[in-house]
């Protein structure tokens, strides 16, 4: 089985018939994959290498420089964390530059949209929230950009948006960053030949980098909300059935809303042009986290996610795929060539050979958005008369659960103390705990399978489920972001809680089984929620019955997110084995040793049923620690 | 005693270093960088496959009763004075009839790119000590070049250590 998604399977078949190579084919041609790489014991950091350590002890146990398996594995892992942090914070930086230019009158597409969010954030970071909006937003932006530079004290965004206990732990262990960029750069320095060879010291630096990643992610969420609005509940659809044969079909793929949000706005103005070309209209759809951003804010339907990103082109009905960056497969250019889709790259730092590049700059965002839509309209004209093969598979979606939206919904139950109903339910046991399901799909796992199994197993046992990124995408495509899924899969306690909230909000039924909190930078939203609960209870995050799970992760960003989730005190389940097994020491530090330092730790389990059991056990351990009633797995 | 290419299957990590070394040894440049820079595309004659959870290298066994020699119509396929089965330097050139490919039970004979000519392990890859390139390249000892009796002796010892522990 390649995927649990019926639409994806239909398109895999179409790909086979047309001899279009997909991610699954390429994975097969990559077999067998190098065992040294799988174990993390290959070092390519200098030209005396590549060096590999024999894991059987029957060959070299040191690289040319003398680095052993522990050093090599730790170095490779922390470099991945640095890359993940660079990606999330780079996303935040682009947003910051856009807003800064917008405020200076140089980028008319950007400005302050959500003043309430700005004021709330300002209060958290120590600015006077009562200042006039223009003065406040400028001060806020100065502070936001300062996060990237090396400061003298603890990184503001890490300190302000975590519990006091986390801050103390990070200071004590020397893992509190002083800035985002210098922390990432220092990691490249440390992992250069002949610098840091102490595996534990390297891992602690990795934690520091992951905390910088958290700050960058939080900033990305904050800035997007300020610029484009904080999400509230939206109703939409997901999967390839959202494509419309007679419309100009445009997929927006990547991660940053900096262009996609503008395209959504401009597309509304260009409906007439599309109709002039014989189309019924412009049909925007999202892929990966750019898709999540515009789903959350505008209800734009989700087309597909992660490893199935090549599939929508095979319908023959996709006129353009517009990409920004991160998780965008270069293979799209080849598929686009076969199917006639225009693949349009938009970021000067992220081009793909064979794509059309329409470089977007903050100053010309709206014009570029219109140009991009025009290219898609032209392609719509060109494809007329060609057959299409659109799977009639789609699911209803309820999304948009920012922390603000969740608190708003809860306040209908208890206006004075919105978190109280959740905390009371956790204490009584009608909610056993909270699990955040995050991360990507991975070609090594049947697409979505682990996400779905873990959600069903945990929901049936009264665990509240949150989701972000392509995990949220998986749940969207399989109908798990619906009240119907709650009725079908939730245990009695969870069902009662979700129904009480839903009915208090006039939905006439429960909230969805899984709450979609946004893109992968929006894992910061889930942390915000956990921090609010922890602060309310007066305990630290590492005491809460809250677990994070990345059942099908693949990217360096996911490694970084998993590491910050561990560092703030959460048990973190990984459903794909990370490349660390070549070092017994690193493996044991990550799964056990870190527990004494941070409270969080990694659980590696590839079987989704066993993983659900392990996650549930971690929740029970936390409940027991808090003196709450516990339950057996049954 | 003659040394043979023997495989410790459980040691293979699937790194394909043997494949790369085999191909490089059959290049004109005889070096990885030289062959790559020269735009060469030398063919490998050893194949690492994934079989279930196992990674398995396989190449010509140079069988005593070699079906490829029996099946060869032209007489190209023969056993040379070193005991190596090869279609190079035989009675007549290989015509690419693929009989050898069809009868080889291991599937380790392939076709030269763009030519009607069979390609297989020919041991034209050994260093000054006589060790094949694939064995030299293997970082885990999955490929061994040793006498049969020495190999079986080692296995016997390992078995006894396990069994009588």
UniProtKB/TrEMBL annotation, chain A:
Task: Detail which positions bind [Ni-4Fe-4S] cluster.
Answer: 255, 289, 327, 440, 470, 520
User: Which of this chain's residues are annotated to bind [4Fe-4S] cluster 1?
Assistant: 34, 42
Q: Which residues cross the membrane?
A: none
One annotated GO biological process: generation of precursor metabolites and energy
**Keyword Disulfide bond on entry:** no
Catalysed reaction per UniProt?
Answer: CO + 2 oxidized [2Fe-2S]-[ferredoxin] + H2O = 2 reduced [2Fe-2S]-[ferredoxin] + CO2 + 2 H(+)
This enzyme's EC code(s): 1.2.7.4
Task: Identify the InterPro entries for this entry.
Answer: CO_DH_a-bundle, CODH, HCP/CODH, Prismane-like_a/b-sand, Prismane-like_sf
Q: Mind listing the GO molecular function terms for this protein?
A: 4 iron, 4 sulfur cluster binding; anaerobic carbon-monoxide dehydrogenase activity; hydroxylamine reductase activity; nickel cation binding; peroxidase activity
Q: Keywords for this entry?
A: 4Fe-4S, Iron, Iron-sulfur, Metal-binding, Nickel, Oxidoreductase
User: EC top class, in one word?
Assistant: oxidoreductase
> What is the required cofactor set for this protein?
[4Fe-4S] cluster
Q: Which residues bind [4Fe-4S] cluster 2?
A: 43, 46, 51, 65
Q: State the protein's name.
A: Carbon monoxide dehydrogenase
UniProtKB/TrEMBL annotation, chain B:
Q: Does the keyword Protein biosynthesis apply?
A: no
| Pfam families xrefs | Fer4_11
Q: What are the record keywords, sorted?
A: 4Fe-4S, Electron transport, Iron, Iron-sulfur, Metal-binding, Repeat, Transport
User: What are the GO MF terms of this UniProt record?
Assistant: 4 iron, 4 sulfur cluster binding; metal ion binding
Using the record's annotation, list all stretches that form the 4Fe-4S ferredoxin-type domain: 3-31, 82-114, 115-148
Xref: PROSITE patterns: 4FE4S_FER_1 (PS00198), 4FE4S_FER_2 (PS51379)
SUPFAM superfamilies attached to this UniProt entry = 4Fe-4S ferredoxins
> Which top-rank group of organisms is this from?
Bacteria
Would the keyword Transport be found if you checked this record's keyword annotation? yes
**What PANTHER family does the record point to?**
ANAEROBIC DIMETHYL SULFOXIDE REDUCTASE CHAIN B-RELATED (PTHR43177:SF5), PROTEIN NRFC (PTHR43177)
Q: What is this protein called?
A: CO dehydrogenase iron-sulfur protein CooF
Organism of this sequence:
Desulfocucumis palustris
């Amino acid at each position: 089985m390649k995927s649990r998604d019926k639409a994806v399977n239909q398109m895999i078949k179409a790909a086979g018939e047309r001899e279009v190579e997909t991610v699954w084919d390429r994975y097969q041609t990559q077999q067998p994959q190098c065992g040294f790489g799988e174990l993390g014991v290959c070092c390519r950091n200098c030209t005396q290498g590549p060096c590999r350590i024999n894991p059987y002890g029957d060959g070299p146990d040191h690289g040319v420089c003398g680095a052993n398996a522990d050093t090599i594995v730790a170095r490779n892992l922390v470099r991945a964390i640095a890359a993940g942090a660079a990606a999330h914070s780079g996303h935040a930086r682009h947003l910051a530059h856009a807003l800064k230019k917008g405020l200076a009158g140089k980028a008319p597409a950007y400005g302050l949209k959500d003043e309430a969010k700005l004021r709330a954030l300002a209060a958290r970071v120590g600015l006077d929230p009562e200042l006039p909006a223009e003065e406040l937003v400028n001060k806020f932006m100065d502070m936001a950009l300062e996060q990237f530079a090396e400061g003298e004290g603890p990184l503001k965004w890490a300190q302000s948006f975590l519990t006091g206990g986390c801050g103390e732990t990070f200071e004590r262990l020397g893992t509190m960053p002083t800035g985002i960029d210098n922390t990432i750069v220092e990691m490249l320095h440390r992992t250069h030949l002949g610098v840091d060879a102490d595996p534990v010291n390297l891992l602690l630096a990795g934690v520091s980098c992951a905390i910088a990643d958290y700050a960058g992610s939080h900033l990305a969420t904050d800035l997007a909300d300020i610029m484009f609005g904080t999400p509230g509940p939206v109703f939409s659809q997901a999967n390839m059935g959202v494509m419309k044969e007679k419309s100009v079909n445009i997929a927006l793929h990547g991660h940053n809303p900096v262009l996609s949000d503008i395209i959504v706005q401009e597309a509304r103005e260009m409906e007439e042009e599309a109709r002039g070309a014989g189309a019924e209209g412009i049909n925007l759809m999202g892929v990966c986290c750019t898709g999540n951003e515009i789903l959350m804010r505008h209800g734009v339907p989700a087309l597909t996610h992660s490893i199935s990103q090549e599939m929508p082109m095979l319908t023959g009905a996709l006129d353009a795929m517009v990409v920004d960056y991160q998780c965008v497969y270069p293979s799209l250019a080849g598929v686009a060539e076969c199917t006639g889709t225009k693949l349009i790259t938009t970021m000067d730092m992220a081009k793909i050979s064979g794509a059309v590049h329409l470089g977007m700059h903050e100053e010309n965002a709206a014009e570029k958005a219109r140009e991009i839509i025009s290219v898609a309209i032209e392609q719509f004209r060109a494809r007329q008369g060609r057959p299409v093969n659109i799977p009639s598979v789609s699911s209803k979606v309820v999304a948009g659960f920012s922390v603000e939206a969740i608190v708003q919904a809860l306040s209908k139950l208890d206006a004075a103390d919105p978190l109280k109903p959740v905390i009371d339910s956790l204490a009584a046991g009608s909610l056993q705990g909270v699990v955040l399901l995050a991360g990507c799909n991975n070609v090594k796992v049947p697409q979505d399978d682990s996400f779905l199994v873990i959600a069903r197993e945990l929901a049936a046992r009264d665990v509240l489920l949150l989701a972000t990124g392509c995990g949220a995408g998986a749940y969207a495509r399989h109908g798990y972001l619906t009240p119907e899924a709650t009725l079908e899969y939730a245990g009695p306690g969870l069902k009662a809680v979700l129904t009480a909230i839903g009915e208090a909000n006039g939905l006439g039924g429960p909230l969805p089984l899984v709450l979609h909190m946004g893109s992968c930078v929006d894992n910061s939203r889930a942390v915000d929620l956990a921090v609010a609960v922890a602060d309310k209870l007066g305990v630290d995050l590492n005491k809460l019955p809250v677990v994070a799970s990345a059942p099908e992760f693949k990217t360096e960003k996911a490694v970084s997110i998993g590491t910050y989730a561990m560092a703030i005190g959460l048990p973190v389940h990984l459903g794909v084995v990370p490349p660390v097994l070549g070092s017994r020491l690193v493996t044991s530090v990550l799964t056990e040793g870190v527990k004494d330092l941070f409270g969080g730790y990694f659980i590696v389990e590839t079987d989704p049923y066993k993983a659900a059991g392990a996650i549930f056990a971690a929740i029970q351990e936390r409940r027991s620690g808090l003196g709450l009633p516990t339950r057996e797995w049954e | 005693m003659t040394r043979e290419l023997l495989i410790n299957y459980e040691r293979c990590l699937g790194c394909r270093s043997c494949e790369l070394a085999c191909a490089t040894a059959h290049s004109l440049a005889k070096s990885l960088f030289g062959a790559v820079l020269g735009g060469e595309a030398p063919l490998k004659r050893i194949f690492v496959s994934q079989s279930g959870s196992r990674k398995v290298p396989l190449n010509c066994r140079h069988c005593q009763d070699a079906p490829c020699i029996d099946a060869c119509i032209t007489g190209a396929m023969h056993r040379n004075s070193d005991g190596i089965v090869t279609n190079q330097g035989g009675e007549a050139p290989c015509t690419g009839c693929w009989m050898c490919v069809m009868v080889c039970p291991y599937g380790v004979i392939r076709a030269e790119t763009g030519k009607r000519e069979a390609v297989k392990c020919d041991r034209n890859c050994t260093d000054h000590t006589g060790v094949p390139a694939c064995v030299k390249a293997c970082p885990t000892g999955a490929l061994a070049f040793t006498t049969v009796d020495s190999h079986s002796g080692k296995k016997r010892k390992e078995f006894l250590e396990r069994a009588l522990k």
